[in-house]
Input
Amino acid sequence: MTKWTLGIIGGSGLYELDGLEDRREDRVVTAWGEPSDTLVRGRIGDVDLVFLPRHGKGHRLTPSAVPYRANIAALKAAGVTDVLSISACGSLKEDYVPGHFVAVDQFIDRTVARESTYFGPGMVAHVSMARPVCSRLSAFAAQAAESAGATLHRGGTYLAMEGPQFSSLAESRLYRQWGCDVIGMTAMPEAKLAREAELPYATLAMVTDYDCWRSDTEAVSVTNVLEIMGRNSAIARTAIVNLARTLDGTERTPSPDGIETCLDFALITAPDARDPVLLEKLQVIAGRALGG
Ligand SMILES: CSC[C@H]1O[C@H](OP(=O)(O)O)[C@H](O)[C@@H]1O
Ligand SMILES: Nc1ncnc2[nH]cnc12
Output
């Protein structure tokens, strides 16, 4: 039976995961450098979990400095089958109220200063990001969050900005006009890299504030983000445990979205034009599709 191995990327306010059996920590280095922190491994029932705090313990890394490529590569090398990302986010819609959760299903990438692909000269790939989230994992995560007591929105468009400064009022209004639901600084390029690594990925975002567009509400600050997070992070933690318990004892089948084989439709560089050094570096990420 194929088992589930869940990679959990903890966002702001989620730097540890309690309640794991057989807990151990692994310091790893990937071909793409060191991940944000040690990997915390353990299990809940027969579901293996690998936890990684995105900003490192103590929140050392800015959104721009998070080593997104190393993080996803480390999870892939650890045998993770599915990646659930937990993020704090601002709300761009009246009815996405601070304290609510969103099972994000679309992203708009406005980041500008991050490495956002594993591929490059000597091995070019164009994966589809039309449906950036694994529908099955997202549905399981949504159910797990609701069982944990969350008010949850199924679906939502997350605008990923570079930061670390929060948005201006003009930007916040623009993103609202674009139809975005929530805003954060980290889900991109994380989701793109997970797709390139053929890892099903989903984001559970916790709404912590109304950004700065709402005239009668104070503009977002770290203080009010932390305050809302303090009141609601227990829900995120319980959701992770619920998710593992739901999957416990079930056979893992491939994602219904074909994510584990997406590189079969994405590689374009002719075999004789491929760079052997890059191919070697890509083994953990794309070895299945590249062969060797
Ligand atoms: C602490 S407010 C801004 C910070 O919070 C979010 O982090 P994450 O997505 O890792 O939960 C946001 O993206 C910013 O990095
Ligand atoms: N308003 C906001 N903008 C960007 N990232 C955030 N993370 C939490 N709230 C945010």
